[in-house]
Write a structure and sequence with these properties.
Elements lengths: L11 H13 L7 H6 L3 E3 L4 E4 L4 E4 L8 E2 L5 E3 L8 H15 L23 E4 L3 E7 L2 E6 L2 H12 L4 H5 L1 E5 L16 E6 L10 H20 L7 E6 L11 H4 L6 H9 L2 H7 L4 H22 L2 H4 L3 E7 L1 H11 L3 H18 L4 H31 L10 E7 L3 H7 L19 E8 L23 E2 L17 E2 L27 E2 L7 H15 L5 H5 L10 E4 L31 E5 L3 E6 L14 E3 L8 H7 L8 H11 L1 H14 L1
Parallel strand pairs: 10-11, 10-12, 12-13, 13-14, 14-21, 15-21, 16-17
Antiparallel strand pairs: 1-2, 2-3, 3-4, 5-9, 6-7, 7-8, 8-9, 18-20, 19-20
Helix pairs in contact: 6-19, 10-12
Protein name: DDHD domain containing 1
GO cellular component, one term: cytoplasm
Family: Belongs to the PA-PLA1 family.
Length: 673
């Protein structure tokens, strides 16, 4: 029973193993030696252990102040199948065995729960402290309350002709509705996910454990619905790194004024973590705290699941908020000392460029020679240390997927001097040798979240993030096949003047770019705009222009001459971009076209294929869809903490973590066909 809610049954595999441990104690109170001899039973996919002697459960991988009570259910209430309290249950069980031991039960386990007992007299009765129990037969047992109001109600209803059992009795069942079997066993974990929290953990200790539990529960529902036929079983483990850190002790609390103390304490417990991380004094403590906790959890998991590494188990990380930045720095080994060294080097270069006296030149040369000598000594020293002691890796595992949720990582990277490049690869910010795939998830109104793709290719600031599918979408298009769309088509530099080279026009992906449809925009309006756009450029061309669409994707740039009235008046010298319908693709991929309306002609040009290519053009930014009746101002307040229970995100995570298994299954099905 967790959080003082209703009792929940263990699965059959766990229940039978707990029962065996319980029976090994023997009758009566266990002696001290016997209690120590009974090992705790590992339950709930290995996340918890049960102490049979003290009848309590506790988590294996994280700390929890409150123990979870465990109960051996014997007698259960009809309908709800909740167990009676253990004290009453034991008394009823003892009386039942004394009275009916050796009598024949019904053969069918599924008893008629609504079978009436009208007219049957009780053959046995037991008085309890606040209740009494009547046996009408060996398997017809009823519980009655002895409270005064219950007695009065019972008397009235019996005078009206109702039986005692049907008027106020609660039927009891000996044994649970479902029989426990060893086949009811959880699958072996083949993929573990470390869930890293951000700021605010000090303010609400244990929150990451609850958030991870929510994510685990939603993932289980999605797993059962969509991935039940796959071998991959994903387990989520919370990484709580903040509570063990001492940092400044209570210095910040001591300098905090008393007025509006509640608000100040909240800021000290949440936003202060960002200041700690940007402080050169405490940054390393935060990094080491998270790094050690990740390694501790991985080592503990492998010690309890030795076959995990043998069978090639994979590890992913889901980080939230500031946790994304710290996790990134651990994986890449980034340190602010690097920036300091770059600054010194830049200052040296600036000094060399300006005029200086002979004495200054001589001193600078000496300084340069001394620094060179110092570097050589440091390298020799590091070489000696490396030959005697092999430095362990920062993390003891390779990260398969790094999921960022509500992440400010892009801002930190921008402030560190990261600027867009030309490679279009994830390696520009996170090498694939460190992490196979980086995925940035955010809600469109999350004020803390920022995009990563424009830091890789600048023109991606005008390409919308990939929309995450709703979990109940029928036959969703695979994410790698989704066509990108412009956020602002008028700003996209796909239309160039005659003097510009076509090769300078960037193309964001290997699929045709579609104009993004804003929420609430009707299909009729879009259709009307498309017709008007087609009419304006197709004047005088008829079917000749659009017949080009149906041809092979090897079409070369063409120039089609039209009459003077084919051009738009007024601003006709400016190039105008017009959206095109999707084109048929060839074996070489999709063909991208751009219509350019010039003075007297329309150019059909093929754009160069430059994409955000991780492996095969993978996208990085993924955006949750806004609700249809969602207030953007309200969601701006709640969206940063709304990721944990989202079924859409659970499906998204499992889609990428089970991707290889899904592809293998599809391939085997195809081979069979």
């Amino acid at each position: 029973r967790e959080d003082r809610k209703t009792w929940k049954p263990f699965i059959g595999y766990d229940s039978l193993r707990i029962e065996l441990a319980y029976r090994s104690l023997g009758p009566g109170e266990p002696r001290e030696g016997e209690a120590a001899a009974v090992e705790p039973v590992c339950v709930r996919s290995g996340l918890y252990e049960v102490d049979v002697v003290n009848a309590e459960s506790y988590p294996v991988y994280w700390n929890q102040t409150e123990k979870i009570p465990v109960m051996r259910g014997q007698w259960f209430i009809d309908g709800t199948w909740q167990p009676l309290e253990e004290e009453e249950s034991n008394l009823i069980e003892q009386e039942h065995l004394n009275r009916f031991r050796g009598q024949q039960l019904q053969e069918s386990f599924d008893m008629e729960v609504s079978k009436p007992v009208d007219g049957k007299e009780a053959i046995h009765s037991l008085k309890l402290s606040r209740n009494h129990v009547d046996w009408h037969s060996v398997d017809e047992v009823y519980l009655y309350s002895d409270a005064t109001t219950s007695k009065i109600a019972r008397t009235v209803t019996q005078k009206l002709g109702f039986s005692k059992a049907s008027s106020s009795g609660t039927r009891l069942h000996r044994g649970y509705v479902e029989e426990a079997t060893l086949e009811d066993k959880p699958p072996q974990t083949s993929h573990i996910v470390f869930v890293v929290h951000g700021i605010g953990q000090k303010m609400d200790q244990g929150r990451i454990i609850k958030n991870t539990a929510m994510m685990r529960d939603t993932a289980r529902k999605i797993e059962e619905k969509y991935f039940s036929n796959l071998a991959t079983h994903v387990e989520f483990l919370p990484v709580e790194w903040r509570s063990k850190l001492t940092l400044d002790g209570d210095t910040v609390d001591s300098i905090t004024p008393d007025k509006v103390r509640g608000l100040r304490d909240m800021l000290n417990s949440s936003a202060m973590d960002i200041m700690y991380y940007t402080s050169p004094l405490y940054r390393d403590e935060l990094v080491k705290g998270l790094q050690q906790e990740l390694n501790r959890l991985y080592t503990l998991f492998c010690s309890r699941n030795p076959e995990f590494e043998e069978k090639g188990g994979k590890v992913s990380i889901v980080s939230h908020s500031l946790g994304c930045v710290i996790t990134y720095d651990i994986m890449t080994g980034w340190n602010p000392v690097r920036l300091y060294e770059q600054l010194l080097q830049k200052e040296e270069e600036e000094l060399e460029d300006r005029w200086m006296s002979y004495e200054e030149q001589r001193l600078l040369e000496e300084l340069y020679i001394t620094k060179q000598r110092l570097r050589e000594i440091e390298e020799r020293l590091h070489g000696l240390k490396a030959s005697t002691i092999s430095k362990p890796p920062v993390l003891k595992f390779k990260v398969e997927n790094f999921f960022c949720m509500g992440s400010p990582l892009a801002v930190f990277l921008a402030l560190r001097g990261i600027r867009p490049g030309n490679s279009g690869s994830q390696d520009h910010i996170l090498p694939r040798t460190i992490c196979n795939r980086l995925l940035n998830i955010f809600h469109p109104t999350d004020p803390v979240a920022y995009r990563l793709e424009p830091l890789i290719l600048k023109h991606y600031s005008n390409i919308s993030p990939v929309q995450i599918h709703w979990y109940n979408t029928a036959n969703p298009l695979p994410y790698d096949h989704m066509k990108p769309s412009f956020l602002n088509p008028t700003k996209e530099p796909t239309s160039v003047t005659d003097s510009e080279s076509v090769s300078t026009v960037p193309s964001p992906t290997t699929s045709p770019v579609m104009v993004r449809r804003h929420y609430g925009e009707s299909i009729t309006n879009i259709g009307k705009a498309s017709i008007l756009g087609a009419a304006s450029i197709g004047k005088g061309l008829g079917g000749m222009l659009f017949s080009r669409f149906g041809r092979s994707s090897t079409t070369t740039p063409q120039t089609l001459e039209t009459g003077k009235d084919g051009a738009e008046g007024g601003d006709d010298k400016k190039a105008t971009t017009v959206g095109t319908p999707p084109l048929p693709h060839s074996s070489s991929g999709f063909l991208e076209l751009c219509f350019k309306l010039g003075e007297n002609r329309i150019n059909i040009v093929e754009l160069p294929r430059r994409s955000l290519a991780g492996v095969g053009g993978h996208r990085i930014d993924f955006e949750l869809r806004e609700g249809l009746v969602e207030s953007r101002y309200w969601s701006a307040v709640t969206s940063h903490t709304a990721y944990w229970s989202s079924l859409d995100i659970a499906l998204f995570l499992l889609t990428f973590m089970c991707k290889h298994d899904q592809e293998d299954t599809d391939k085997s099905n195809l081979d069979t066909i």
